[in-house]
């Protein structure tokens, strides 16, 4: 082949090289907006990839390649430049992301702590005249890096350790000051701090997180038998807390290798913000996750039907009035009373909503009453009334807290019947439904007579101002009146003390006892809630005290104008209470506690209750009392 013929073949590689050299290095193509947004907003916390602003820092400081091959070395060099003052302020946020990135890829706790240090230096500069752009993605990311970095740095075996002492940093050591008294809650101690930001919560229709600064944790409350009789706090309570590592003059400290900080703990049911320099900064709290963790540990749902069939045997607790947060003077109690074959856990969604409603959480505290729901209604109602009176006496023995005199009681289903007994005067009308003779003339033991008198002779509790009835069978439940319900009721084990009291009645004068709708001498809650039962008829006829306002929230599955419209358990005409000051119809089955309309009505009622308060609470007026 001639040279002329071979020239085109030899020129092909050169031509390809020339074409490649002419190709533009920057290209643009149209893609969907969602993809662009994901690229623009990705960062170490959301995708495990460094944000664009942080990659800009690496490029600017000639560390783009070396960080991939030697992240520890690159971070050490970047820290030296920071200490030497060769960083722009916004670049401190990028350094926090780099430290967190390396921490999760082998660097460990010292680098998580470094991420928190750098993030604080960015968020709270020594020069308070430096203003952060609230729309800057670096500002939002830095807050999360501080919170997550602090959590991981203090984490050990799944929990977070809150204590004083030295902590290692990649460039030195951090000396942490901590006052252990910060972990004392009333007369108990906080322990076992779970990082709730790492929990996946399901089951709640809504989830609440208060964004801010600090590591959000769920703290267990240590059980102390010596103080349990003086408070309402549940032994299994979990309370939200926030851990904050506070630095002073951090930019100056970063010039050396020995840093100093103080560790602080804030109760999530109290403080919502913290003062840092001249700024009032919100604290990060995870109330819904804390509530979910507590419920999962208590497993209250597993005892609901057991609590219906089993009464109070020897050595068992008959009932309990509990709270999941410490008593606070000045906060009005809202008492939630569950229904038949149910438990306090059924209030979880409503509690989650109300305690995360601004204007309510700082004015109310919530208590829960639990009881054996198969027991006779008068007996369970007696336990409720006495538990409330005892709580008011124990928590405020000197009567310094006027908020306790503005109590709101909310009852669902059978719990609504218990609730009504707290605000009525019965005289001897309820007793006449049991006996044809006065209690005083019957031959019974003193203890039995006392129990029967406490169960059947009612007077309004003076500290209750408002009651709310949810799907309450004031006229009885047609389900309770069914043959199946009465067969099941035969297996209910009744309380020992009540059994003894009725045994005394039978021995003394059985013919004086006028039981209805029961094959046994002692009625169960099923008997009491059967339509036509004398007890339910008398209770419905008793008017509430004039000083009390009552509200009805009624579940209806069909047309409420229909005579027999119901919720699957209770008919509308049974739940309707003419004397109620308000009535709200909710399109729901019988378990309406978590329905959005129920929650909205509860918010309305509680806000209305606040508006009617005439005398605001004052710590000074209460003698400076605190709990």
Model description:
This protein has 2 domains: 238 residues, no CATH class; 313 residues, 3-Layer(aba) Sandwich (Rossmann fold), CATH 3.40.50.1820. The strands form 4 sheets. Strands 3-4-9-8-7-6-5 form a 7-stranded mixed β-sheet, with helices on both faces. The C terminus is likely disordered. The protein has 627 residues and is of the alpha/beta class. It contains 22 helices and 18 strands. The protein starts with a helix and ends in a 16-residue tail after the last helix.
Rg computed from alpha carbons, rounded to a whole number of angstroms: 33 Å
Oligomer: single chain
CATH fold annotation of the largest domain:
Rossmann fold
**Which class do the helix and strand fractions yield?**
alpha/beta
Helix content: 25-40%
The overall average pLDDT, rounded, is 83
What's the story with the biggest beta sheet?
7 strands, mixed
Amount of beta strand: 15-25%
* End-to-end CA span: 104 Å
Please state how the strands of the largest beta sheet are arranged side by side: 3-4-9-8-7-6-5
Quickly count the helices.
22
Write the layout of secondary structure elements.
Blueprint: H1 3-22, H2 33-41, H3 52-60, H4 64-69, H5 71-83, H6 91-107, H7 109-123, H8 137-154, E1 155-156, E2 159-160, E3 165-169, E4 172-178, E5 184-185, E6 188-195, E7 215-221, E8 238-246, H9 250-253, E9 258-267, E10 273-276, E11 279-282, H10 287-298, H11 304-309, E12 319-323, E13 332-337, H12 348-354, E14 364-371, H13 377-395, E15 407-412, H14 414-420, H15 429-432, H16 446-456, E16 464-470, H17 483-489, H18 496-509, H19 525-528, H20 534-541, E17 549-556, H21 572-575, E18 582-587, H22 596-611
Parallel strand pairs: 4-9, 13-14, 13-15, 15-16, 16-17, 17-18
Antiparallel strand pairs: 1-2, 3-4, 5-6, 6-7, 7-8, 8-9, 10-11, 12-14
Helix pairs in contact: 3-6, 5-6, 6-7, 6-8, 7-8, 13-14, 13-16, 16-18
